Amino acid sequence: MLMGQYDYAVDAKGRLNFPAKFREEMGQTFIVTCWLDHCLAAFPAEQFEKVADKIEEKGLVKGRKVTRMLYSSAVEVTPDKQGRIQLPAKLRAYAGLDHDVTIIGNREFAEIWNTAAWNQTQEGADDDFTAAMEDLDF
């Protein structure tokens, strides 16, 4: 299970350290793609297939916009010996990853955020969390 929060920086070559604990769960090669709220998502290959299956269940017509976004932006990455992954310029631009980056665990995948954007989402998070828990009747 992927959990926790890690802060890193993208270097001048577009490389990003990826948490060692996450690398163990992700496997040798994993998928990074555009995700919700202008962050990136990193999926183990088998989990990316599960996401694709869920979209397919909705039908090609209903899922077309999602599949276009996910697959056109998806890249396979393999961490180097220092644990860094190479993020293409297009993905870095989408998520605003110019320097400070926060990587969070989200159970079966990781999210890669511009740190300032992540911090901004956390400003009202307590109220949102409470409301979401109430909606789930937890």
From TrEMBL:
<keyword id="KW-0677">Repeat</keyword>
<keyword id="KW-0805">Transcription regulation</keyword>
<keyword id="KW-0963">Cytoplasm</keyword>
<dbReference type="InterPro" id="IPR007159">
    <property type="entry name" value="SpoVT-AbrB_dom"/>
</dbReference>
<dbReference type="InterPro" id="IPR003444">
    <property type="entry name" value="MraZ"/>
</dbReference>
<comment type="subunit">
    <text>Forms oligomers.</text>
</comment>
<dbReference type="InterPro" id="IPR038619">
    <property type="entry name" value="MraZ_sf"/>
</dbReference>
<comment type="similarity">
    <text>Belongs to the MraZ family.</text>
</comment>
<dbReference type="InterPro" id="IPR035642">
    <property type="entry name" value="MraZ_N"/>
</dbReference>
<dbReference type="InterPro" id="IPR020603">
    <property type="entry name" value="MraZ_dom"/>
</dbReference>
<protein>
    <recommendedName>
        <fullName>Transcriptional regulator MraZ</fullName>
    </recommendedName>
</protein>
<keyword id="KW-0804">Transcription</keyword>
<feature type="domain" description="SpoVT-AbrB">
    <location>
        <begin position="5"/>
        <end position="47"/>
    </location>
</feature>
<dbReference type="Pfam" id="PF02381">
    <property type="entry name" value="MraZ"/>
</dbReference>
<keyword id="KW-0238">DNA-binding</keyword>
<feature type="domain" description="SpoVT-AbrB">
    <location>
        <begin position="74"/>
        <end position="117"/>
    </location>
</feature>
<dbReference type="InterPro" id="IPR037914">
    <property type="entry name" value="SpoVT-AbrB_sf"/>
</dbReference>
<dbReference type="InterPro" id="IPR035644">
    <property type="entry name" value="MraZ_C"/>
</dbReference>
